[in-house]
Amino acid sequence: MAIPERLPREIPNPRQMLEKKIASHEARIAVMGLGYVGLTLSVELGKVGFSVTGIDTSARKVDLVESGKSDVQGVSEFEVAGLKAVGKLTATRECDVLDETDVVVVCVPTPLNKTRDPDVSFILQACETIKDRLRCGQLVILESTTYPGTTQELVLPLLEESGLKVGRDFFLVFSPERVDPGNRVYTITNTPKVVGGITPSCAEIGTHFYRQLIGEVVSVSSTQAAEMTKLLENTFRSVNIGLVNEVALMCDRLGVDVWEVIDAAATKPFGFMPFYPGPGLGGHCIPVDPHFLAWKLKTLNYNARFIELASEVTRSMPGYVVEKITDALNEHERCLKGSNILILGVTYKPDVRDIRESPALDILEMLQEKGAKVSYCDPFVDHLQTETLDLKGVTLNEKSLTESHCVVIVTHHSDWDYEWIVKRARCIVDTRNATQAVSGKKDHVFKL
Ligand code: SAJ
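# SAJ complex -> structure
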């Protein structure tokens, strides 16, 4: 593929040229990062007629797309293969395609590092690559969740090292991803999209771009506002989950059923939104995003107390579940050590494949350390391998249930028959109130 000469520094009207290409869907798109955000976005862009090239450092991810497959829940292989067949979607590990693209969307991971500080190295690597190939008339979008100031303070200076000027030669926006893998109600196209630009013209072009595939696009005044919007969304969730976990600990001491109390409070049609206690906080967003905000505020000498406190409470939940298991076994004159414990559900939430940050991993580790004989069952996870765990999943059947001294419902997948489980297990710790609807004898079921 011949690499065209860079466009000259000055072209008559980069913005007008770009807007026309976007409006006609002739704009060529590059999406950097083919995870749940990048691949989902690439497919939706291809479906409205753009030609999209996905760029990923993982040969496995590139090969999957090139062979018309998908490893992302909610992205159909039929759609990937179809777009591939008509040349609307390709994938590559090489970045020279950036010489020919008009819009580049960065959807790379932003994990926490070992000291739980933000790791923006993937963003910087992607932007270094973009800088080397930046041309007049290009729109660069950052979607990766990050702390307020990243786009303005890190990405912009890097891109302007090219000698091109933002708002005149190229355009730069931040637009938070709102992809919820497996959510059949809210998809990219019907979830409002927030856009913040470095300059007004950046915001206008970014809005113009997303309006090609999303019904509602909300423009905010800056990239910092857009970055902060995302962090507020997920900090709101994290803090409320922390609060309701503390309410569960309070209700336990009061001898009150926390689930009954939440359901009763949820009858209030205004001013209340139910959250539910659980074994801890998993996933790639909620446990991570608020710490981006807390870290940034620390650099500004501010301690984000709610974030830290909610995180502290929620991080104590796996240990609380192990206490519940110990108490439940005591009711059956058994100690934890040497008991067969079956964990039902190890993914971070129901009906997904993802085990990232799953509290089930902490619970399994703690039980093993205390000498319990642990096994797990999860239809989405055949084999559980982490730094400290190496377990093959067992089948949920009469045998695995009756041989267990305690069955622990950690992730309540929809397909399980909880009535059948309650009837066969001799002792159950239910961390999700999954057995709520089961009638009949339940004095062997212990809830959070
Ligand atoms: N959790 C609780 N109690 C609750 C809700 C969740 O313990 O009341 C736990 C879950 O078990 C899980 C963790 O919190 O371990 C995260 O659950 P989540 O429902 O927030 O699911 P995520 O991590 O997939 O969050 C995503 C986010 N979406 C984006 O960032 C684009 C989040 O903003 C969404 O609100 C959430 O999906 C959603 O609503 O599904």
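# post-check
Residues 242 and 313 are 6 Å apart (CA to CA).
The pocket of SAJ is lined by residues 177-180, 183, 233-234, 237, 241, 275-276, 278, 281-283, 285-286, 348-349 (CB under 6 Å).
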